[in-house]
Amino acid sequence: MDSRPALLGGKPIIEGELPPENTIDDAEIAAVTRVLQSGELSGFLASAGDEFFGGKEVRKLEEDFRKRFDVKHAIGLNSATTGLHAALVACGVGAGDQVILPPTTMSATAASVLLAGAVPVFADIDPLTFNIDPASVEARITDRTAAIIAVNLFGQPAELDELRRIADAHRLRLIEDNAQSPAALFDGRWAGTIGDAGVFSLNRNKIVQSGQGGVVVTNDDNIAFRAQLVRNHGEVVLDQMPDKPYEPLVGSNYRLTEPIAAIANIQMGRLEKLTADRVALAEQLTEGLSGIDCLHPPTIHPKATHVYFVYPMRFDSEAAGMPRDLFVKAMTAENLPIYAGYTRPIYLYPVFQHKPDKRVPALFGQPLPDYSAGICPNAERAHSHDLVLTDICRYPLRSEHVELFVQGVEKVLGAAKELVRSAADR
Ligand SMILES: Cc1ncc(COP(=O)(O)O)c(C=O)c1O
């Protein structure tokens, strides 16, 4: 191995690109072909009756989710973003309500709150797990709070027992954004099923995917029906379903198509194996990093399992003798997949910084929550200093790729002084 870092002109650890993450196979192609040949590309109609609830493939997907995650209802939609919006409305969250959520998440978590006409309030994260900190949630509760969104981030459930306790004590709804953690467990229960509603994603970069897609799960009959109304122009059928409770709400078009649901049905059959492979590689990586004191493997809550949507690490720049961003730059030059931080804390996005009173529609005279820099110091520090991510455990990468990753870490850290000197000279 060339010990000179690739950033300084040496030979990179990996030559060329890693294979792309393509989990689509003949079975998906056959399933889509079958649906296309049937001519039924969507089973939905926005009118009272059986077709209000979608076609065969959508219902098969919903049945799979119900059985797999041991939950009473599953509602297939065209994304997790729309699923989060449907879940919020279904849980009764609306204009003027406050919803507490973490700032370290994909923007959709916060956008869904705005789409529901409600007011996002950000609680800080735990600096070790990067998940929302229940103590910070509790401190942010006001008499306007209606719900908490727990994001099960990077593949690990948030502290769902504590969040459930807080939600129950304050009579709030708990919604799980489980886009990143299908098949993870908390206290022996499936992530996504501990909240009043849980939302899964099937978008293109998830562990299993159908390009786009989402599923809301719940054990509550009324939440399930309301989510179905939001999915399919519910206002049209409100007075035409005598067997259902009247629900004064406006729906949208969040319908999932049959070909996409057919892909999702095949992909769901791969979830267990794809997850097991990720976990095996992640455990190998954790073992490989065990002697490296400046790069800490994921901290896993004692009641949780991790499915490693991505593998999060904490970087200690003092112990490393180099800044995090230089380390990441040097690893990237070795052609190893690594990223500094995740999303910047969501409240720092322009939507909250630029005329936020215009974006947060339903203040009803209440003051705008504080969206200034510094409100969630752990989230800010993780993004700017501590957090490093890799997806080296993804399909179809193997044990040898993980070995190369560890070798890359050792190589770059071994050249820390040289890299720092060279960066200072530039
Ligand atoms: C945490 C989280 N929430 C929500 C979403 C939105 O999912 P979708 O793309 O299915 O709308 C994502 C997608 O990346 C996500 O990672």
- Measure the end-to-end span: 26 Å
Instruction: Specify the CATH architecture of the largest domain.
Output: 3-Layer(aba) Sandwich
Strand order in space, largest sheet: 1-9-8-5-4-2-3
Please state the average pLDDT score. 96
Helix content: 25-40%
CATH topology descriptor of the largest domain: Aspartate Aminotransferase, domain 2
Number of domains: 2
Instruction: Calculate Rg over CA atoms.
Output: 23 Å
Number of helices: 16
Shape: globular
Uncertain residue ranges = none
Q: Characterize the main sheet.
A: 7 strands, mixed
Query: Please, what is the CATH homologous superfamily of the largest domain?
Result: Type I PLP-dependent aspartate aminotransferase-like (Major domain)
Quote the beta fraction. Answer: 5-15%
Instruction: Count the beta strands.
Output: 13
Ions, cofactors and other ligands present here are: pyridoxal-5'-phosphate
Derived from helix and strand composition plus strand pairing, the structural class reads alpha/beta
Query: CATH top level of the largest domain?
Result: Alpha Beta
